Protein backbone atom coordinates (compact mmCIF):
# COMPACT_ATOMS: atom_id res chain seq x y z
CA UNK A 1 0.00 0.00 0.00
CA UNK A 2 1.41 3.35 -1.03
CA UNK A 3 0.67 6.42 1.02
CA UNK A 4 0.45 9.74 -0.72
CA UNK A 5 3.26 12.08 0.22
CA UNK A 6 2.04 15.22 1.95
CA UNK A 7 3.21 18.57 0.70
CA UNK A 8 2.63 21.64 2.84
CA UNK A 9 2.52 24.87 0.87
CA UNK A 10 3.78 28.03 2.51
CA UNK A 11 4.54 31.69 1.95
CA UNK A 12 7.57 33.54 3.28
CA UNK A 13 7.73 37.28 3.80
CA UNK A 14 10.91 39.08 4.83
CA UNK A 15 10.20 42.36 6.61
CA UNK A 16 13.12 44.71 6.35
CA UNK A 17 13.53 48.31 5.29
CA UNK A 18 17.15 47.79 4.20
CA UNK A 19 16.56 44.52 2.33
CA UNK A 20 13.40 45.72 0.60
CA UNK A 21 15.26 48.86 -0.50
CA UNK A 22 18.18 46.85 -1.87
CA UNK A 23 20.81 48.20 0.55
CA UNK A 24 21.33 44.72 1.99
CA UNK A 25 21.02 41.29 0.42
CA UNK A 26 18.51 38.93 2.00
CA UNK A 27 19.94 35.65 3.29
CA UNK A 28 16.90 34.52 5.27
CA UNK A 29 15.17 32.92 2.27
CA UNK A 30 18.12 30.59 1.64
CA UNK A 31 18.36 29.79 5.36
CA UNK A 32 14.68 28.89 5.41
CA UNK A 33 14.87 26.76 2.27
CA UNK A 34 17.86 24.89 3.72
CA UNK A 35 15.99 24.30 6.99
CA UNK A 36 12.59 23.18 5.74
CA UNK A 37 11.87 19.51 5.16
CA UNK A 38 11.25 18.25 1.62
CA UNK A 39 7.51 18.04 2.28
CA UNK A 40 7.26 21.85 2.50
CA UNK A 41 7.02 23.89 -0.69
CA UNK A 42 7.46 27.65 -0.86
CA UNK A 43 4.61 29.00 -2.99
CA UNK A 44 5.27 32.68 -2.45
CA UNK A 45 8.13 34.93 -1.40
CA UNK A 46 8.37 38.67 -0.98
CA UNK A 47 10.50 41.27 0.77
CA UNK A 48 8.66 44.33 2.01
CA UNK A 49 9.47 47.28 4.27
CA UNK A 50 8.78 46.97 7.98
CA UNK A 51 5.67 49.13 7.71
CA UNK A 52 2.65 47.97 9.72
CA UNK A 53 0.05 48.69 7.03
CA UNK A 54 2.12 47.04 4.28
CA UNK A 55 2.67 44.00 6.48
CA UNK A 56 -1.03 43.78 7.28
CA UNK A 57 -1.98 44.11 3.59
CA UNK A 58 0.50 41.39 2.62
CA UNK A 59 -0.73 39.02 5.34
CA UNK A 60 -4.40 39.63 4.40
CA UNK A 61 -3.63 38.88 0.75
CA UNK A 62 -2.01 35.55 1.65
CA UNK A 63 -4.75 34.56 4.11
CA UNK A 64 -7.36 35.31 1.43
CA UNK A 65 -5.44 32.98 -0.94
CA UNK A 66 -5.77 30.20 1.68
CA UNK A 67 -2.02 29.71 2.03
CA UNK A 68 -1.92 27.19 4.93
CA UNK A 69 1.36 28.42 6.42
CA UNK A 70 2.63 31.99 6.36
CA UNK A 71 6.09 32.60 7.80
CA UNK A 72 7.44 36.08 8.38
CA UNK A 73 11.04 37.03 9.17
CA UNK A 74 12.05 40.22 10.89
CA UNK A 75 10.40 43.11 12.65
CA UNK A 76 9.99 41.31 15.98
CA UNK A 77 12.45 43.24 18.14
CA UNK A 78 12.46 46.51 20.08
CA UNK A 79 13.10 48.99 17.27
CA UNK A 80 10.49 51.64 16.50
CA UNK A 81 10.27 50.07 13.00
CA UNK A 82 9.61 46.54 14.35
CA UNK A 83 5.91 46.18 13.55
CA UNK A 84 5.42 42.53 12.65
CA UNK A 85 3.76 41.32 15.88
CA UNK A 86 1.31 44.23 15.91
CA UNK A 87 0.27 43.63 12.28
CA UNK A 88 -0.04 39.89 12.91
CA UNK A 89 -2.15 40.39 16.04
CA UNK A 90 -4.59 42.57 14.11
CA UNK A 91 -5.30 39.70 11.73
CA UNK A 92 -5.21 36.51 13.77
CA UNK A 93 -8.42 35.10 15.22
CA UNK A 94 -6.82 32.44 17.45
CA UNK A 95 -3.50 32.81 19.22
CA UNK A 96 -1.05 29.89 19.15
CA UNK A 97 1.32 30.95 21.94
CA UNK A 98 2.92 27.50 22.25
CA UNK A 99 4.55 27.91 18.84
CA UNK A 100 6.17 31.23 19.70
CA UNK A 101 7.10 29.94 23.14
CA UNK A 102 8.73 26.85 21.59
CA UNK A 103 10.89 29.07 19.39
CA UNK A 104 11.92 31.25 22.34
CA UNK A 105 12.54 28.21 24.56
CA UNK A 106 14.75 26.63 21.90
CA UNK A 107 16.60 29.93 21.39
CA UNK A 108 17.19 30.25 25.13
CA UNK A 109 19.77 27.46 24.88
CA UNK A 110 21.61 29.32 22.11
CA UNK A 111 21.53 33.04 22.86
CA UNK A 112 20.76 35.32 25.80
CA UNK A 113 18.88 37.57 23.36
CA UNK A 114 15.97 35.10 23.17
CA UNK A 115 13.98 37.15 25.67
CA UNK A 116 13.98 40.20 23.41
CA UNK A 117 11.74 38.55 20.80
CA UNK A 118 8.20 39.88 20.59
CA UNK A 119 7.25 37.36 17.88
CA UNK A 120 3.71 35.96 17.88
CA UNK A 121 1.84 33.26 16.01
CA UNK A 122 -1.79 32.50 15.35
CA UNK A 123 -4.53 31.36 13.03
CA UNK A 124 -6.35 33.64 10.60
CA UNK A 125 -9.12 31.83 8.69
CA UNK A 126 -7.35 28.73 7.27
CA UNK A 127 -3.80 30.03 7.67
CA UNK A 128 -1.22 29.62 10.40
CA UNK A 129 0.97 32.72 10.68
CA UNK A 130 4.30 32.42 12.49
CA UNK A 131 6.69 35.33 13.10
CA UNK A 132 10.33 34.27 12.87
CA UNK A 133 13.40 36.30 13.82
CA UNK A 134 15.20 38.43 11.25
CA UNK A 135 18.63 36.80 11.01
CA UNK A 136 19.37 33.78 8.81
CA UNK A 137 20.86 31.81 11.72
CA UNK A 138 17.84 32.53 13.91
CA UNK A 139 15.43 31.56 11.10
CA UNK A 140 17.12 28.14 10.87
CA UNK A 141 17.01 27.71 14.63
CA UNK A 142 13.33 28.66 14.77
CA UNK A 143 12.49 26.05 12.15
CA UNK A 144 14.46 23.47 14.13
CA UNK A 145 12.31 24.36 17.15
CA UNK A 146 8.94 23.89 15.42
CA UNK A 147 9.75 21.15 12.90
CA UNK A 148 8.70 18.27 15.23
CA UNK A 149 5.07 19.43 15.44
CA UNK A 150 4.46 21.81 12.55
CA UNK A 151 3.07 19.26 10.08
CA UNK A 152 0.70 17.81 12.65
CA UNK A 153 -0.56 21.29 13.48
CA UNK A 154 -1.18 22.04 9.80
CA UNK A 155 -3.01 18.71 9.41
CA UNK A 156 -5.29 19.61 12.31
CA UNK A 157 -5.89 23.08 10.85
CA UNK A 158 -6.88 21.50 7.51
CA UNK A 159 -9.11 18.97 9.28
CA UNK A 160 -6.86 16.20 7.92
CA UNK A 161 -5.84 14.24 11.00
CA UNK A 162 -6.57 10.95 12.70
CA UNK A 163 -8.04 10.40 16.14
CA UNK A 164 -5.64 10.44 19.04
CA UNK A 165 -5.72 7.06 20.75
TrEMBL record:
Name of the protein in question: MogA/MoaB family molybdenum cofactor biosynthesis protein
Residues in MoaB/Mog domain copies: 11-153
Record pathway: Cofactor biosynthesis; molybdopterin biosynthesis
Alphabetized UniProt keyword annotations: Molybdenum cofactor biosynthesis
Tagged with keyword Protein biosynthesis: no
Upper lineage: Bacteria, Bacillati, Bacillota, Tissierellia, Tissierellales
NCBIfam families xref list: molyb_syn (TIGR00177)
Pfam families: MoCF_biosynth
Alphabetized SMART domains for the sequence: MoCF_biosynth
Keyword DNA damage recorded: no
Entry-linked SUPFAM superfamilies: Molybdenum cofactor biosynthesis proteins
